[in-house]
Design brief:
binds 5'-O-[(R)-(carboxyoxy)(hydroxy)phosphoryl]adenosine; five-stranded mixed β-sheet; binds zinc ion; 2 domains; 19% strand; 11 helices; Nucleotidyltransferase, domain 5; alpha/beta
Length: 319
């Protein structure tokens, strides 16, 4: 089954063509990071306008690079939710128009499902499967026993972890979006200089909270400046990363044990984080009969291949 995926939920304009959820013929992503970096965050109106400008070129590029004939495409899949409404509309209208004029069926996809199924491109999935979804807008633990129905076991009660990374990046004076830069400098830092809270919430809950950690970083910077001292940026990044990732990985492993899952999958932009990958593999290697997988970097952040793969699963379920 050949599926053309379309993704425009935030600040990436993306189109991809994938066969049977595995063979990626093309995966074109136009990122608006260079546009939004001047504002330090995504401005919805600017994002929508840029999707409008780029969507046709991204479609053309994805079709040409795939070497697939339009008549051979079985389905068009498009992100319907969640996301910025103005951005989503551009992708939805483009996808529906393309499907209509070429007489191809269309299917709506949930963006988070896309992040989880991105793992299928390079791995086989095993059930029960526990997904740790960590992106700019979400931090959730979801379980599935069959690959179709997901049950949410926990989520952040305030900030998403990616959002928290980006805010910490900003107060540390790093470029936008901060996540990847915090990760890069944290590797060089020492976690012992600054003590930051580890917020585990109640013992049996699989919910998270990151706003307290974010405030602790901001307060620490303000206090250090008031004392006319310099913040050691690498060390603060390292302490922040250690606190955020330790909680995420500890809770995920506890959850995996409780539900006796066969696989833990990382999903979303923060799945690219080096400390998350390291800690989850270290702690997870002690689990019996449980594999840990994550997508390669290009399938962690927003892309349309993941939307085509999620559609492949959704269609198998309907049939
Ligand atoms: O999944 P994604 O591309 O978009 C959303 O659906 O939100 O995730 C983007 C988020 C941003 O917050 C970005 O800073 C974060 O993923 N991110 C990282 C890393 N790479 C991307 N956060 C921590 N470490 C990274 N290496
Ligand atoms: Zn995303």
């Amino acid at each position: 089954m050949i599926i053309l995926g379309v993704e425009t939920s935030c600040d990436e304009t993306a189109v991809s063509i994938v066969r049977n959820g595995k063979e990626v013929f093309s995966n074109i992503v136009f990122s608006q990071i260079d546009i939004h970096k001047y504002n330090g965050g995504v401005i919805p109106e600017i994002a929508s306008r840029n999707h409008v400008e780029k969507i046709l070129y991204v479609f053309q590029d994805a079709i040409i690079k795939s070497s697939i004939k339009i008549k051979d495409i079985d389905y068009v899949a498009v992100t319907k939710t969640p996301g910025l409404i103005g951005s989503l509309i551009v992708g939805i209208v483009a996808a529906h128009t393309f499907a209509y004029v070429n007489d191809i069926k269309i299917i709506d996809i949930d963006h988070i499902d896309g992040h989880i199924y991105a793992n299928y491109i390079e791995h086989e999935l095993k059930y029960p499967l526990l997904a740790l979804v960590v992106s700019g807008g979400h931090t959730e633990l979801r379980i599935t026993y069959d690959g179709y129905e997901f049950v949410k076991l926990g989520e952040t009660l305030d900030d998403a972890v990616g959002e928290c990374y980006d805010k910490v990046g900003r107060v540390l004076g790093l470029p936008y979006p901060g996540g990847i830069y915090v990760d890069k400098i944290a590797i060089k830092g020492n976690i012992n200089r600054y003590k930051l809270p580890l917020v585990y919430l109640e013992k049996d809950s699989f919910n998270f909270s990151f706003s307290g950690l974010k405030s602790a970083v901001i307060n620490l910077i303000n206090k250090t400046k008031q004392n006319n001292e310099e913040v050691v940026v690498e060390d603060l990044a390292a302490s922040f990363q250690y606190s955020a990732i330790s909680v995420l990985t500890t809770k995920t492993i506890e959850c995996a044990k409780k539900y006796k899952v066969k696989q833990i999958v990382l999903a979303g932009g923060v799945a690219a984080n080096s400390e998350l990958r390291k800690q989850i593999v270290e702690k997870g290697s002690k689990l019996e009969d449980c594999e840990i997988i994550y997508p390669s970097m290009k399938y962690c952040t927003d892309n349309a291949a993941m939307i085509a793969v999620a559609a492949f699963f959704k269609l198998k379920q309907i049939k």
